[in-house]
Amino acid sequence: MASRAALHERIVAAEGAQAVEVGVDLRRLNEPDSPVFNRAENAAPFFVAMGAVFAALYFGGWIWALAVAGTALILMATGLQYLLMLRLRRRALAYALSDPEGWQRLWDKGGLTLRLPQRDDTLVASPEGDWTRFATRHLGQRQ
């Protein structure tokens, strides 16, 4: 049987060739005990919004502060959250595909899934699933 490092290399090569889809569970990975969690990235929008609200209150009065608060709330709930999750996904994939230890840490956290494109019957979800068996069975000797 191939080593975990060799199986990880198969997954990296297959993901690069788009022969396998690596899914990321953003909810599980956006927690403080996750290796790809960034506290400052999650907190910054709130503090920027509060600063903008206080600046609007100081310079424009309570009506402007209310308008800025409403706008900030809408932006934080829609567009900014999407951008934060996009950055988290990219960071998680880079971390997982960089080395076998990173892959295993995210797998144990429950933040990854594997499947062949257009084949839902091949889905393997972490941490219950066995990614080594998936790589052995579906990815063969790819390099």
Structure, briefly:
By secondary structure, the chain is mainly alpha-helical. It is built from seven helices and three strands, in the order αβαααααββα.
What would you say this structure looks like, in words?
The structure is a single chain. With 143 residues, the protein is mainly alpha-helical. The protein has one domain. The protein has 7 helices and 3 strands, in the order H-E-H-H-H-H-H-E-E-H. The chain has a 3-stranded antiparallel beta sheet with strand order 1-2-3. Strand 2 (112-116) and strand 3 form a beta hairpin. Helix 4 (62-77) runs parallel beside helix 5 and helix 5 (79-98) packs across helix 6.
Number of domains: 1
Q: Tell me the strand percentage band.
A: 5-15%
Helix fraction bin:
55-70%
Distance between the termini: 16 Å
Strand numbers in spatial order across the main sheet? 1-2-3
CA gyration radius, whole angstroms: 20 Å
> Uncertain regions: pLDDT < 50 for 5+ in a row?
none
Specify the biggest β-sheet. 3 strands, antiparallel
Average of per-residue pLDDT values: 92
* Tertiary shape: elongated
Please describe the topology of this protein.
Blueprint: H1 4-16, E1 21-24, H2 26-29, H3 39-60, H4 62-77, H5 79-98, H6 100-109, E2 112-116, E3 119-125, H7 131-139
Antiparallel strand pairs: 1-2, 2-3
Helix pairs in contact: 1-7, 3-4, 4-5, 5-6
What attributes does this structure have?
143 residues; mainly alpha; 3-stranded antiparallel sheet; 7 helices; 3 strands; 66% helix; 11% strand
